[in-house]
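Q: Hi! First time doing this. I have a protein sequence and I read that you can turn it into a structure. Is that right? Here it is:
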Amino acid sequence: MSRTKLLIIGGIIVLLGITLNSALFTVRETEQVLVLQFGEFKESVRDPGLHVKLPFIQNIQSYDKRVLSVDPDAEEMLLKDQKRIFVDAFARYRITDPRRFFQTVRNEFTFDNRFGNILTSTVKEFVAQRNLEDLLSEQRNDIMESIRDSVARESAGFGIEVVDIRIGRSELPEAVSQNVYDRMRTERERQAAQLRAEGEENARRIRAEADRQQVEIVAEAQREAQTLRGEGDATRNAILGESYGKDPAHCGQAGSLLGEGPRTAPLPTQVQKIEGAKPLLAFPRCNPRPSPCLGAGPQQGGCLQGPPSAPPGAAPPRVSLFKVETRRGPPRAARRFSPDAALCSHGTCSGRRAVRRKFRT
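A: Yes, that's right. Below is the predicted 3D structure, encoded as structure tokens:
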């Protein structure tokens, strides 16, 4: 085969390859294709796979079938209460009519500019009818749904479906934010002061109630204690009376040791220990009044035998080695006496003065 024939065959093969490459095109699952002939729409291909078109005469324009987004820059807008706020809104859309989309905007870049202007103007219109509290409350969703419906009506000629519109960020300018922060801080401080005052009032009321209960409890305890003490004294007196009635002879001595029984007015007493004296176990004392015992005890001249009893409320005198002087008037020098001496003289206390003169030192 000559060289010329080989060149012809090779050229034919190359031409066939170029022709096939221009005539065949592939549609992906995420795409939709428009077939154009000299810039004029011929058909729309949505099925994925390998398709054929006229080579060198027709060309294709593909668009994405997935959800696309438009995110314009944040802009400063005016609220209903004349406050300024920065709002950043974005939209999600899907191309449903690629032919109309091609006829109106040609490509996605042009659409983003036009659709972004529509979105911004619509957001400004609705934001101007609301306060800041509405944008930060549950009404925010209602506002975004209203904006979506309005934008969908205005962009219906683009051959798209508006899926969703969201307000991503809404914040105040720096100066306005500081004013709002100061106002919020003042309100929180007022609430804190009110709660603190209510807490102090409750604390005072609880303390007063606790003090009242304490006083009542102490008073009740003291009343019960006095009642029990009175019952105990009554039981004690009954037992002592019964015991004294059984042994009247022992009444005087036991009554004196216990500090009980009637006697004359208390006399001042000076006590001094005596070296080498015998133990003083008992001595007679003057008692012109009758015996407190149920039965009369042994008396001599109106004096009850037994150790003297202490004044009311005082401890009884000790039985030990002491010399005792009982007198009326200012103190004098202590005088010695004999334990065996009789201090009474037939119902009078003259024997005591006689003993003093006898044993005066």
